[in-house]
Amino acid sequence: MKDLFAGPGYLFQGFSLLRKPGLRRFVLMPLLVNILLFGGLIWWAYGWVEGVSEYLIAKLPAWLHWLRYVVVPVFVLTSLMVIFYAFSILANLIAAPFNGLLAEAVECHLTGKTLQGDWRQLLRDILPSIYSELRKLLYFLLRALPLLLLLIIPVVNIAGSVLWVLFSAWMMTVQYMDYPMANHQLFFRDQRARLRKRPLLAWGFGGLVMLCTMIPVVNFFVMPAAVAGATLIWVKESQLEAKR
User: Could you report the per-residue pLDDT of 190-216, keeping only the tens digit for each?
Assistant: First the structure.
């Protein structure tokens, strides 16, 4: 069970790393992408969820109004997670090359190595990074669509919401662990194989990342913090494996 609590700790440490002088310049672009994207869409998301919730309540017959205390909270929570996860996918698609460079900078900061990447390397990484993001998106859609169908079935949607939370937390970890792992030539299949060995660590880390994406202002910083936290996981776990 310690993995479940270790995961959030890595994200908190990721937030702390953002303040390090040598890393600030690598944080700038992921931060700007998040501010521009979430700043423009966050209010729309909250307004849409509120409007649809009121519509659903109005459509309930009087004798079923008690369901508003069950169905509406499930709908609101699930809708916000779906919307903000979709925003996160878009933000990561745009910022992927910069996130890879940030992951390399964080790893060098943690290990004392010299940073090898530069802006020319960043340009070379644009197409591979976009391909990797699209592959993760396809993986997500093939599994998310059946779960979303469960969410529209009364009663079943309660269990569906739990499954959605677990799946979203898993995907958040897959998303951000990709950057440090890809820097070491470990790609999608190998990444998932490694993460499946530590599911509680993945759920703990990804769950807090997902929660932070729904908190105003905090969600501006969560992407670079998650990249830093995921890199910290990679470095710490690699060091532990080397000692065994």
Answer: 888 999 999 999 999 999 998 888 787
> Which residue range forms the structural domain that includes residue 101?
2-243
Listed in sequence order, the residues at least 6 apart from 236 whose beta carbon sits closer than 8 Å to its beta carbon are: 10
Cβ neighbourhood burial of 120 (10 Å; 0-12, 13-18, 19+): exposed
Coil vs helix vs strand at 220: helix
Counting the structural domains of the chain, the total is: 1
The 10 Å CB-count burial string (b at 16+, else e) for 168-198 is bbbbbbbbbbbbbbbbeebeeeebeebbeeb
CA distance 163 to 1: 19
Residue 170 near residue 206, CB atoms below 8 Å: yes
Looking at residue 68, what DSSP letter applies?
Answer: G
Residue 60 — very low, low, confident or very high, per pLDDT cuts 50/70/90? low
Q: How far apart are CA 223 and CA 226, in angstroms?
A: 5
